[in-house]
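F.,

This is the one I mentioned.
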């Protein structure tokens, strides 16, 4: 199985702001994964700190 996380980052933001936002997303979803069976087909949209959808994660069979 493969865990896939795709996030679009704001190219206009500073490197520090992009790193901070990505860190927040990883902490949030890392802490939330226990709510999922983590089987192929599982997944969810990923939102930034302004609650805008910026990507998604999913479990793939391969």
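My design for it:
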């Amino acid at each position: 199985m493969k865990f896939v996380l795709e996030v679009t980052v704001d190219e206009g933001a500073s490197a520090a702001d992009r790193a901070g936002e990505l860190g927040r997303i990883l902490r949030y979803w890392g802490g939330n994964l226990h709510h999922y069976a983590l089987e192929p087909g599982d997944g969810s949209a990923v939102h930034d700190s302004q609650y805008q959808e910026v990507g998604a994660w999913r479990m793939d069979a391969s």
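Residues 15-32 form the longest helix (18 residues).

Talk soon.
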